Each structure stands twice: as C-alpha cells, then as structure tokens.
C-alpha cells in the first residue's frame, strides 16, 4: 500500500537517521535531533498562503525539522546538516526552513531569468515554462556549498508538457535546469530507493 504524504515523510526521516548511524555519524544526527524542532503553526500557515498546494510530505518534514541550513535552533548555535539529495549521486543538500522558503520565493526570477528565457542555449528541460512573469517555484533546498552549485525547487507553473508540483534541479557550471521527479512524494521515494547515497564517507563530519 503506497504511503501517504505524512507517512512518507516520517519513513524518510527514520531512514535518514539509519543512514547517519550506518555511516558512523550517529552523534551528528543525535546532536541535530536534540537541538531541532518542527515549524510553528504560524510559519506553516504563512507558507501555505504563498503555496496553497504545498505537498503534505514537505509540510510533515518541516513539522519534524524546520530546516537544516544554518538554522539557529539554540541561541548562538547554527545547525548545518545534510538532509536531502537529488539525482546527482552522493550530492547532499540542506533543507531550508519555512522562513527561508518564504524569503527566497522570488529570488530565482531575479537571477535565473536567462535560463527561463533560454537566452544562451543552456540545457533547460522542456517541461519547464518559458514564462518568467508567471513563474511560481518553491525553493526548498540548497546544496552543501551554500547553494552555489545546485538548488532544488517545486514547480507550480510548468510548461504544457510538465506536471504541476514537479521537482526541478538547478545545476551551475555548466548551467542546467532538469526535472528530476513529477512530485515531492516521488522525489522522496527516489532518495529512499537510492538508499540515501548522499550520506556517505565523503559527506558526513568526522
């Protein structure tokens, strides 16, 4: 029986815990869990106003941990924990907090316009719109080097060939926009099927 959004998020979270422990990084995970907490109701409500079709599985992940990207859960202590991956093998990402997701809502339109408009011939998946004015993406993850090389988005404004809610991976140098899953649920399932390969000897702290 397929997992619903809430069950899938919890299964993903539990699997991530196992992956950390199997890589000998259980202390890193346990420190994170001890410090972290889920998003508050007001923050989630704000995000749902901005993104009425916020996937239940993402909302549940945020209820378990409200971000892992320089997230200050305790005064003076910022958490940075690899939490997500992509189709790129052993390539870790941080989960943005509800506040960061809301704050960066329109950022890609400002700096990634050349990709949406196909100005320089960079590879852009045909399932991604070329309508910059109506672009509606949820930026939910930055790669481990502060997002400079790759970011992940939920796309609520696809082209006619795409699917609303599809997951887009931006990659820099060479620049590329690719659809890597048709939904956030499918995306999480992909990471689980790949056995959390982004948690490995090269991506966990000693």
Q: Can you characterise this structure?
A:
This protein is an alpha+beta fold. It has 8 helices and 7 strands; from the N terminus they run ααααβββαααββββα. It has helices at residues 5-22, 26-35, 41-50, 56-64, 98-103, 107-111, 113-116, 184-193, and strands spanning 69-74, 77-80, 93-95, 137-143, 150-155, 166-171, 176-181. The protein has a 5-stranded antiparallel beta sheet. Strand 6 (166-171) and strand 7 form a beta hairpin. 35% of the residues are buried. The model has no long low-confidence stretch (mean pLDDT 94).
Q: Largest beta sheet, briefly? A: 5 strands, antiparallel
Q: List segments where confidence is low: pLDDT < 50 over at least 5 consecutive residues.
A: none
Overall pLDDT: 94
- Rg is 16 Å
Number of helices: 8
Strand order of the largest sheet: 3-4-5-6-7
Estimate what percentage of residues fall within beta strands. 15-25%
Helix content: 25-40%
Sequence of secondary-structure elements = HHHHEEEHHHEEEEH
Could you say which structural class the secondary elements and strand pairing correspond to? alpha+beta
Topology:
Elements: H1 5-22, H2 26-35, H3 41-50, H4 56-64, E1 69-74, E2 77-80, E3 93-95, H5 98-103, H6 107-111, H7 113-116, E4 137-143, E5 150-155, E6 166-171, E7 176-181, H8 184-193
Helix pairs in contact: 1-2, 1-4, 1-8
Short recap of the structure:
It is built from eight helices and seven strands; from the N terminus they run H-H-H-H-E-E-E-H-H-H-E-E-E-E-H. It is of the alpha+beta class.
């Amino acid at each position: 029986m397929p997992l619903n959004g809430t069950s899938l998020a919890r299964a993903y979270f539990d699997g991530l815990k196992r992956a950390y422990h199997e890589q000998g990084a259980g202390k890193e995970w346990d420190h994170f869990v001890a410090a972290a907490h889920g998003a508050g109701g007001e923050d989630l409500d704000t995000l749902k106003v901005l993104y009425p079709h916020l996937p239940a599985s993402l909302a549940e992940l945020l209820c378990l941990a409200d971000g892992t990207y320089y997230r200050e859960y305790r005064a003076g202590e910022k958490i940075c924990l690899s939490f997500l991956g992509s189709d790129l093998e052993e390539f870790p990402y941080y989960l943005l907090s509800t506040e960061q997701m809301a704050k960066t809502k329109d950022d890609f339109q400002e700096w990634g316009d050349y990709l949406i408009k196909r100005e320089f011939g960079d590879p852009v998946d045909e399932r991604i719109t070329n309508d910059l004015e109506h672009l509606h993406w949820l930026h939910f993850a930055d790669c481990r080097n502060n997002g400079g090389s790759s970011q992940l988005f939920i796309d609520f404004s696809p082209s006619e060939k795409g699917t609303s809610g599809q997951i887009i991976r931006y990659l820099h140098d060479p620049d590329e926009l690719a659809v890597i899953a048709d939904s956030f649920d499918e995306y999480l399932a992909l990471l689980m099927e790949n056995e959390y390969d982004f948690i490995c000897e090269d991506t966990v702290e000693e």
